[in-house]
Amino acid sequence: MRLLLLLLAAPAAWHQLPAVPDREGVAGSFAGVSGGALLVAGGANFPGRKPWEGGTKAWTDAAYILDTPDGSWKPAGTLLRPLGYGVSATHRGAVVCAGGSDHTRHHADAFTLEWKAGKLRTTALPPLPRPVANGCGALVGDTLYVVGGQEAPDALASKAVFALDLSAAEPRWVVGPELPSPRILATAAVCDGSLYVVGGCELVRDGQRVSRRYLRDGYRLDPRAGWKRIADLPQPSAAPPSPAPSDTAGFFLLGGDDGSQVQTAPERHPGFPRGILRYDAAADRWTAAGEQPAPRVTTPCVRWADRWVIPSGEMRPGVRSPQVWAFR
Fold first, then answer.
1. What percent of the chain clears pLDDT 70, i.e. is strictly above it?
2. For residue 259, how many other CB atoms are within 10 A of its CB?
3. pLDDT at 12 over 70
4. Residues 6+ positions from 150 with CB-CB distance below 8 Å
5. pLDDT more than 90, % of the chain
6. Among candidates 244, 216, 242, which has minimal Cα distance to 230?
7. What is the total count of domains within the chain?
8. CA 10 from chain center: how many Å?
9. Among 152, 163, 159, 164, which Cα is nearest to 200's?
10. What is the CATH number of the domain that holds 68?
């Protein structure tokens, strides 16, 4: 009976959609649904040599649209600048984007992307109170939350929380209750009207050296009482597809970087864990829920009609994949 319940709870029917039209693929893109189509924009990759060969990361401003799951990607225009590693969510037919970075700095920009009549329209929103990249976030009702991240490339992790009510006549960012501890590359999830943030990495400075401490703790935001700790993850997890796919009873954590290969040379890295974890909100419990065929990190997860989509992403350090995976 337990096995049957796990099978029923696990994401099933994995399948590939057409690959994004970037040979290398991208990590840290913005993604969502507009005009009924899947929109992917921005992100970064290593278009020439890999990082262990002295290659340089390059950010892109390119945007692409996929009208139907069995269609073909089409160029959709460009962002206002090359940008990636921000937060994105679908809201009322537009993709809301906040924060991000380029090759020199982190940004506080917020804007919407809307695909309409064959054109990409960009509309500015109020900027974040501070620059944020490598954070996480999700939409709870009409409110977009941006959590954690870094203010600058050389900054330590933040525990700041910013919220933007997109239904307001004049939306403005509100500073929310801080996370109990700072982190980058955490996973956001929404279940039964509540925001959850789990895992990620704390940045620890030792002289000139900054290292990552991989985290297992997670929290639920109570609007009246602030953050409440939930059950710890069985193992650390950083940068899995976010926001995590969810339903009214819980959400799924799709792998992530557990930190076990930190000492492995990048060119010999075996890839990220395949395991899927299911969080049961009522029981406050994590359980194993199967495996994914192609684990990816630093990429969004998008609900598109009857499926969840993971567009591109990082398959191992410094290596992206143009593949697009989906499951029902």
1. 96
2. 16
3. no
4. 106, 132, 133, 134, 135, 156, 157, 158, 184, 203
5. 92
6. 216
7. 1
8. 20
9. 159
10. 2.120.10.80
Q: Which two tokens stand for residue 118?
A: 């064959």
- Which residues lie across from 120 on neighbouring strands? 115
Range of the domain at 240: 2-327
Q: Please tell me the distance from the alpha carbon of residue 182 to that of residue 187, in angstroms, as a whole number.
A: 13
Q: What is the mean pLDDT of residues 285-305?
A: 97
Q: Which of 241, 251, 310, 254 is nearest to 38 (CA)?
A: 310
DSSP string for 206-271: ETTEEEEEE---EEEEETTTEEEE-PPPSS--BS-SBSPPB-SSEEEEE--B-STTTTS-GGG---
How far, in whole angstroms, is CA 117 from its chain's centroid? Answer: 28
Contact in structure between 199 and 218 (CB atoms under 8 Å): yes
Length of the chain: 328
Statement: residue 7 has pLDDT above 50 = no
Is residue 49 packed enough to be buried (19+ CB in 10 Å), middle (13-18) or exposed (0-12)? exposed
What letter would DSSP give residue 5? H
Of the candidates 103, 107, 161, which has an alpha carbon nearest to the alpha carbon of residue 131? 107
Using CA atoms, how far apart are residues 162 and 129, in angstroms rounded to an integer?
8
On the 0-12 / 13-18 / 19+ scale of CB atoms within 10 A, 266 is middle
